[in-house]
Amino acid sequence: MTDEERFALIISVIGATRFTARDRRIPEGVAMSAGYTPGVPRLGVPALQSSDASMGITNPGYRPDDPGATALPASIVVGASFNPRLAREGGVVLGREARIRGFNAVLAGGINLARDPRNGRNFEYYSEDPYHSAVLGAEAVNGIQGQGVISTLKHFTLNCNETNRGAPRV
User: Fold this and answer.
1) CA-to-CA distance for 78 and 137, rounded, in angstroms?
2) Residue 125 backbone phi and psi in degrees, to 5
3) Could you read off the pLDDT of 100-118 as tens digits, one per residue?
């Protein structure tokens, strides 16, 4: 693998919307959403086309002809069910709908712990219990990956501050 090929694999570029231009590294016809990482065709490494997806395949203005995907219950509701099968079935829906739209990776499986009730993203996580969150997160991943789609767990820990999240550091 050349240096250029290796370095290309460590980034993901975001797709075009009605507000942003298409990045020149994204080939025409590629499904747009959370990110695109070019593959290495000569080595059989496919490009990664990812969508944000903890509770449904997102479409934040990227695919105007897409009528929308299934909106799944908030992860904290799935956590309250104490039902691993429900988490897996949700993962199956995410994986299937991602694959239908041309995505082979989803940013899904929010397994951060709900530690602070003021965290505006607690709805993305299963519970405050690490074991319970791990069981449900694993089932969601199994459901997604059972559909031939990569699941990338996110927000492992300490993602509970939205205040000034995008503010420049001084």
Assistant:
1) 10
2) -115, 155
3) 998 999 999 888 888 888 7
